[in-house]
Amino acid sequence: MQTTIKTAISFSGTGLHSGRPATVTIRPAGAHHGIWFSRSDVDVGDRLIPARWDAVNRSPLCTKLENAAGLQISTVEHLMAALAGCGIHNALVEIDGPEVPILDGSAAPFVRGIMQRGVRVLAAPVRAFEVLKTVTVTDGEASATIAPADTLKIDFVIDFADAAIGHQEKSLVMNNGSFARELCDSRTFCRQADVDAMQANGLALGGHAGENAVVFDGDQVLSPGGLRHADEPVRHKMLDALGDLALAGAPLIGHYTGVRAGHSLTNTLLRALFATPGAVRMVECDAQMASRLPGFGLEWDEIPAVA
Hints:
GO molecular function, one term: UDP-3-O-acyl-N-acetylglucosamine deacetylase activity
Strand order of the largest sheet: 2-3-8-4-5
Shape: globular
Cofactor: Zn(2+)
Distance between the termini: 28 Å
Order of helices and strands: EEEEEEEHEHEEEEEEHEHEEHEEHEH
Keywords: Hydrolase, Lipid A biosynthesis, Lipid biosynthesis, Lipid metabolism, Metal-binding, Zinc
Pathway: Glycolipid biosynthesis; lipid IV(A) biosynthesis; lipid IV(A) from (3R)-3-hydroxytetradecanoyl-[acyl-carrier-protein] and UDP-N-acetyl-alpha-D-glucosamine: step 2/6
Number of helices: 7
Helix content: 10-25%
Radius of gyration: 18 Å
Largest sheet: 5 strands, mixed
């Protein structure tokens, strides 16, 4: 059955790129509502922004949503991953600014907050998008593929010149609490040279090594405390991919493979998937199919203690 959060919960922090303080509140919503954002700091006009692939204003650094009136909300990927990973299908997300707070750079604080409030089952069957044809998009050496499967599976490969990152790859089936156990506490990461370049261009103003990001420089991890996982970077890329795939508008049943892929390429993949005739269909999930969706079977003790 479809779900929502039992009671509202708020999170306050700083936007990673804007450096501006923001508070985001997740509120319960009824069946078939889906996930919508609402800009509470806007007094006039359309304040609602759909959490959907066709509302993405593609950016290489984060996932940015925009409504028909031009109102935007950015850096939604970690929150979207948490909602998907906790099996939340319906929610109204209110925010008093243009960017979701980065918190500790991972999705773990969102996951812990959602699970503290609890999940409410609604009186409507959950519907999902089932992938029927393999679709691939590329951008230079980067590629993203979605193929038929009986559950959501994510494979990811990264390659960085920095020895502290190097070549990493991981594969994970995204049900039975695996997102919370394996991915949700992995933080956003970047190279020191990228931090310098972004901040020189007025970006990453809220980024702080150790507090909300892992910073690498050659063979060194500059963030105090080091890594939460030896392969934390590829785990975070998988976290991002789940959040970006959650913008399908319903749970996705398919096998995603990302090779050096980022937010923009994953959105390009969703656009290609829905533009390809016969590549995807919406299905009403029976109990067996629903048991293979992200978030099913998540238990409190599976959530990492770092949150």
